[in-house]
Specification:
By secondary structure, the protein is mainly β. It folds into three domains: 40 residues, no CATH class; 109 residues, Immunoglobulin-like (Sandwich); 104 residues, Immunoglobulin-like (Sandwich), CATH 2.60.40. The protein is 14% helix and 47% strand. It contains one helix and 22 strands. The strands form five sheets. It has a six-stranded mixed β-sheet, with no helix packed on it. Strands 16, 17, 20, 21 and 22 form a five-stranded antiparallel β-sheet that branches. Strands 1, 2, 3 and 4 form a four-stranded antiparallel β-sheet that branches. A hairpin with a 7-residue loop joins strand 9 and strand 10.
């Protein structure tokens, strides 16, 4: 004798024009009965999906996904919180699921014990003690933590409504950094520096700023790319050079302010260290001062040389006069 045990669940497929296909899942378990009508064997049978196109009428409560908040960019080794806010509108919560690049890694089922289930996924390390139906805390972020994250919320029967929303997150090794600078520059000297992004899965678009204004492309050099192979993936470091001659116009209160940023998306810039690079205008160097002294001495020497003929002439006249006076005295 075979007895069929039936269980059910729900899932939703998003279609065009905001129409959802709701699946009523019926799992059929064939159960083998012995002569004493006792269960002797159970195995998982086929899963039958009954598909129904269902648009809830206005008078039925509608589950609403209010907001999904995920940091656009995170730093390697840090932690971040994924937030999913929803309004059941009178419905009963069936599940909250989180996905990364289409693979489920977290599930919250309020009627299950335990109510949190975690699935292994590259770059995902969950702090279960701090996670719940509306928040998932990721710790020890890796570069592979980058990806598209989805929060999916489902209601209980009979509506089986499901709503979801996607957000992108990029994890970088560190903020861009500036190298190659001296401590001080004088007017007329050339500034040469590099802005370097950390290793990441995308080509970062770097931008230089001089005194908080975007630098002209004529003073930028590059960008240049360096590729690294990490496991089955590839990481890229971007470098953008800066070269310009210092003028009086560059100084703001005796200083020049430089910074760079990595544009990782349309509306997001990851800036270099908030401590803006500064240059202090210094007095002339010793070599310049010594040259000025030499020029002054040369001018003095030239003046003395130019006056030498006049002095010799005066001496000759004086000697001539003395001789004439002596001859006149002898004659007397």
């Amino acid at each position: 004798m075979i007895l069929y045990v039936v269980t059910h669940g729900a899932c939703t497929c998003k279609m065009l024009h905001d129409v959802s296909i709701h699946f009523a899942l019926i799992s059929v378990f064939p159960v083998t009965m012995d002569q004493n009508d006792k269960i002797s064997d159970m195995s998982l049978g086929a899963v039958v999906c009954l598909v129904s196109f269902f648009i809830p009428p206005p008078f039925i409560n509608n589950l609403k996904l209010l907001n999904v908040r995920i940091a656009n960019h995170t730093i390697l080794g840090s932690s971040t919180t994924l937030k999913c806010t929803f309004d059941l509108e009178g419905e009963h919560l069936y599940s909250v699921k989180w996905y990364k690049n289409g693979d489920e890694f977290f599930r919250y089922l309020p009627k299950s014990k335990p109510n949190i289930q975690v699935f292994e996924k590259s770059g995902i390390y969950i702090d279960i003690d701090k996670s719940n139906s509306t928040e998932v805390v990721l710790k020890s972020l890796e570069l592979s933590s980058s990806g598209t994250y989805r929060c999916e919320v489902s209601a209980e029967a009979p509506s089986f409504q499901t709503v979801f929303q996607d957000r992108d997150m990029i994890t970088v090794e560190e903020i861009p950094w500036i190298s190659g600078l001296q401590h001080e520059y004088n007017v007329g000297e050339t500034v040469n520096a590099n802005c370097t992004s950390s290793k990441m899965e995308i080509h970062a678009q770097l931008v230089w700023y001089i005194n908080n204004e975007k630098a002209n492309s004529t003073v930028e050099q590059g960008p240049y790319y360096k590729k690294y192979f990490a496991g089955s993936g590839q990481l890229v470091t971007t470098v953008l050079g800066l070269s310009f001659t210092v003028t009086d116009g560059h100084y703001k209160n005796g200083e020049i302010y430089l910074k760079c940023a990595a544009r990782l998306s349309t509306h997001y810039l990851l800036y270099s260290d908030e401590k803006i690079i500064r240059f202090t205008k210094r007095p002339p160097t010793e070599s310049i001062i010594s040259n000025q002294v030499k020029q002054a001495k040369m001018q003095e020497n030239s003046i003395s040389v130019q006056n030498t003929p006049n002095i010799i002439h005066m001496v000759c006249v004086l000697v001539f006069c003395l001789r004439n006076n002596r001859k006149m005295l002898v004659a007397y």
